[in-house]
Design goal:
- Two copies of one chain form a homodimer.
- Chain A has about 140 residues and is mainly alpha-helical.
- The N and C termini of chain A lie far apart (about 50 Å).
- Chain A is elongated, with a radius of gyration of 21 Å.
- Chain A has helices spanning about 10-15, 20-30, 45-60, 65-75, 85-120, 130-135.
- The first copy, chain A, has two domains: about 1-75, Multidrug-efflux Transporter Regulator, Chain: A, Domain 2; about 85-143.
- The structure holds a DNA duplex (30 and 30 nucleotides).
Chain lengths: ~140, ~140
DNA sequence: TCTCGATCCTCCAGTCTCTGGAGAATTTAG
DNA sequence: CTAAATTCTCCAGAGACTGGAGGATCGAGA
């Protein structure tokens, strides 16, 4: 049984791998809600904050911009709304995610081929550039 | 039959979707080699530059840091070396790529569920946060 | 209870990755 | 041969952090 604890910002940082100044920065730009303070003005966090922050961290690592994360979080915060105006938004994000998966799979196959080639002591030429450069893997119409 | 052309920086920008100042910036930090200049000091590019730049753009969009891209490009530039010291590097990148694919697939499934729920006019709760927050999808041991 | 090392606070300056404007030179379309 | 479009360099600004200075607070041990 976890839960029920109130975390300091340092403990939250340790639990999520996000640095303390970064946590404060996320609060300042509204990605994280303003944390409740103790009598001596220190921020306190609960398990919900841990999940939210981990989500933000992973999404950032995956290359999503803060604005996209903000939208994703807003959908998660309000599960009733997506069925109305946020539906298109969700579909757009879905297409973007699928595009990224396709490109990453192409890159993975190519890097894997490089590694395999090494295992067999073969010398192969490397096509990582061509793979990711290939426009076919890209959903955007703006280039 | 394409090829054989020498591109201006503006044409390269149009072809790749990378803005002109960004192209110059990439050159300044060494991601792109110094472009040959015309008599009047203007940069010229060939098809190889197009591919390299598209690769950089896609890799950045996928969230890879400049340093990782630099390493990937170095491997591509020198296909003989990966079999020696760069093998571990390639495997590390491979693991990172696979981790990203896994996390993106989890996110995709969840967003897809949201969209599907909308299609059926159902109200579902959204678990995108829990999905990406899940440590199981994360390869890093440093958090 | 007192103390001192760890942690927190705010404020602010710096880094990295772009992005865009100013002013001047060059190219190119009409 | 103009006039508009492009390019050049330099430099400033934006977005997303990151870290240090100076000061307050906490918490474990003497």
């Amino acid at each position: 049984m976890p839960t029920m604890s109130s975390l300091t910002i340092g403990a939250l940082a340790k639990r999520t791998g996000v640095k303390i100044p970064t946590i404060r920065y996320y609060e300042s730009i509204g990605l994280l809600p303003e944390a409740p303070r103790t009598g001596s003005n220190r921020r306190t966090y609960d398990d919900k904050a841990v999940n939210r922050l981990r989500f933000i961290r992973h999404a950032r690592e995956l290359g999503f911009e803060v604005e996209a994360i903000r939208q994703l979080l807003a959908m998660a915060d309000d599960p009733g709304r997506p069925c109305r105006d946020a539906d298109l938004l969700a579909r757009t994000h879905l297409a973007e995610i699928e595009s990224r998966i396709a490109r990453l799979e192409a890159l993975r196959d190519e890097v894997r081929r490089m590694v395999d080639g090494c295992a067999q002591d073969q010398v192969r030429s490397c096509h990582v550039i061509e793979v990711l450069a290939d426009h076919a893997h890209c959903l955007h119409d703006r280039h």
